[in-house]
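Bench notes, afternoon.
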Amino acid sequence: MRRTFASLIIVFFVVFPASAQPQEGKARTIELTLYPAKYSEPKQKYQLLPKAQEQTDADAVPLYEKAVQSLPKDHTTDQFRQWLDTPSDKLPREQVQSTLQQLKPTLQLLEQAAKCRQCNWPADESGNLPEYRRLALALALQARFQVAQGQYDKAISTLQIGLAMARHLGEGTLIQGLVGVAIAGVIMNQAEELIQASNALSLYWALRDLPKPFIDLTKQIEIEIANIKKNENPVIRKQFEEQLKPAHERARMIAKKLDRHIAALQCIEAMRLYAAGHNGKFPGALAEIAEVPVPGDPVTRKPFSYTRIGSKAVLEAAAPEGATSKDAMRYELKLMEQNSRP
């Protein structure tokens, strides 16, 4: 049990990429430059998880293990992060392309694993979990490069692979589930890149069709609680109950924040669809959007807060009761005119 508690702390401070963390005491502000959406026909053309007809009955775990083993030793997470923090139009494309070519065997294994219906994790898979961060960053880099190249269909396929891996991890232990949540967040950051592309089609329906919740940690938390109650020593049992209760609450919050991330992007895509039919303008209020349903915030279970100021808008959600200001969300959005597409 001590390893379980320690692992939770590790997940919070190590697994989540540093570049995705807000400053101390502040909500993370995300600035997006958008264009009115282009409709995709049919509306369900794009999906962000592999289609059922593409899936196989194979077990994903051996493929993930091979992918971890195939990672080049000379590629560091720091280099990946540096490129992921670089605007798509400023990427050193030759260097990134060369790196992705070296990662090709790894990326191909991940694509195969993503299409597996089964993922039978062994009892303790925690040893390799830091390497899954590298796998996620490699996928994120590939998606970012594909967006920069205008290869939007390929970028969506890469997003599928990353989100499928996150879902597979969500079927394991609580620690694996938290790593899955972190990976999904890394991948959704690249969805933000995609929806900013001037010629990208709308991802509204693809985001709408993702599972809700995307990763459900309820079962894993219940298992941990049940294991604690089996301890015959009441002093030790009480100690772990007191230690794990706030950690479990934080785990639930982290999973809900992922759902908020997805819902916020769906809301932004609804705004882009509105702009496409209203002279390239943001709505005055979210209630004005009639083209598609506008999702609310799954954390607070209230509508997102929205303010329009000319061609700019702010979409935000406050931190829930009992959380810190870092658990708030804020998007600052700028809408480009339709005739300004490059």
